[in-house]
Amino acid sequence: MIDLKHRVATLRTRVERSLRRRLRQSENPGRGLDVRPDDTFIVSYPKSGNTWTRFLVASLLHPSSPTDFSNIDERCPTIYKASTTELAALPGPRVLKSHEYFDPRYRRAIYIVRDPRDVLVSYFHYQHRKGFIDASVDLPRFADDFLAGRLNSFGTWQENVASWFAARGERSDFLLLRYEEMLANPTSQLTRIARFLEHSITEQELARVVESCSFERMRALESSTGSKSRHMRAAREDIGFVRKGKSGGWQQEVPPAVIAKLEAAWGPLITRLGYALSKSSRVGS
After folding, report:
1. Which residues contact 209 (CB under 8 A, 6 or more apart)?
2. Which of 30, 95, 189, 215 could form a disulfide with 245 if both were Cys (CB 3.0 to 4.6 A apart)?
3. Full DSSP string of 54-112
4. Closest alpha carbon to 114 in 184, 67, 172
């Protein structure tokens, strides 16, 4: 009887260990990812152009077949949606999406920065789309959470951007992209990306990738294949994930009081990154 109880206890322990191991393997690793030396990360604060950049990179590195929302998670997975097991099974070198503040284990990183006033607007619509906030939450109330860093675990916009900019800004294994420059001249910025990835590309291939990742094309892909992506699932399908593909929308959508509050908090970094402050802030300074 004692031996039987011992066997049962041993079996129970093995089953529990197996279940815990499977659970760990099925979890999305996030910041706990096992980083490889040859990994390249596409990093940004949320709603700064990361998904568009992933499409550009995936289309660049996988020219034999089109990239859409049904395969982007395989070609350039996000560390918050793919499981530990899925990420471990990928052959190297991997290109991965991240929103993390500075992580010294990321040896090669492409970082996208976007005007935080436009980030605020895009994030606000995204949170409504996903059902994370309801219709009672207006933009000024949302802006308070945005400024305080209460929306996610990635810090505030300023903390996230500054952590990378200060630690890696001048290094050859770090590429800083401005979302607005990508919009204005995607071909030149894609050339910079290709050079950073040490990937040779012809002018014809550059044109093909840029065309395949235009915002018109991205909106069409969202309609046709968006439901196949884990990241695209949303509570409100009437709000698109791919929105306008423009910069400066904050000037029409963000109340002056909110702009003043944001610029008062983050003005020095905003101007250092090449963005002009609003006239009211310049007059008051």
Report:
1. 56, 59, 60, 63, 190, 201
2. 215
3. HHHHHHHH-TTS---TTTHHHHS-BTTTS-HHHHHHSPSSPEEEE--S--TT--EEEEE
4. 184
- What SS3 state is found at 231? helix
Question: Residue with structure tokens 């990183």?
Answer: 109
Instruction: Tell me the one-letter amino acid at 179.
Output: Y
